[in-house]
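Problem 12. The chain below contains 281 residues. Write out its predicted structure in token notation.
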Amino acid sequence: MKKICVFFLTVASPLFACGLIGEYSNLGFAPTDISSVHPIYLQHHLVRDKTIVSAASFLDGAFTAGTKYFQSKTIHLSNVKLGTPLILGPGKDIEVNTKIEGGKIRISTDKAHFAASIDTEARPAHHLPLATAHTQVSIQELYAFMRESNLNYGRYFRTLKEVLVQDDQAIGLLEMNRSLPTEGHSLHPTIIDGAFHAMAAIGYQRVGFSGGDKRTLVPVFFDHVTYWGGDIDYSGLFTVEAHLKQLSPEDKKVKYDLIIFNAKGKRVFQIENGLLMQVDF
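Solution.
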């Protein structure tokens, strides 16, 4: 039986209160349908003018599936691979299937989109070598820079509200659009994706708006991702810390670490050895 989602009616538009993951029973996870207009925030995530399901949506989905399957607030993913990009066309529902078996999780349609090892053993808290002095980057200029790099994000995904950069490090503040429902999510994709934008701020600080070749870099792999749930409060500001660890000579690959803290300063999300790569699709 497919997941049935709930519409929240507002003056502006209906909001589809669903993530990628269907209901869980002893039969496994029920399939769920998504499209370019539901969940509603997906239409605000454009890469090369195509509506793409973000890596953040798959991570949130894996956390949600893991917490249901293991009955645990802590989920650890390793050897995380993003496969074929899930491109959403207008007016077409796509069935998403989730399976956890033998310590592995797979999220797929008719193609493989996300695969990882999954367990409940949290990685040790990682500490980034943040500098003491930082330069503030204009958020307006940053998102203009990202548009020039073929990453065109609408208001729901523009959750990075302030960011400071120094060399290969960034620290920023994230705030979710309060009109979006959080039901069906562990850590909302718009918050995770906004944290990735701190990496873009490091790139912007390096080349400036008119400098260099603006490449389209997207997440494709993570060595380790840990989620500490149970205390996700969207009424306050989240903090992101990002550290660019390695940049290939052609700027086609970027390795990085990233941490998200909630408004109380508690660590809720951590990436170790993430990889951004240039993609063409």
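Discussion. The mean pLDDT is 86. Students who got a different answer should revisit the alignment rule from Section 12.3.
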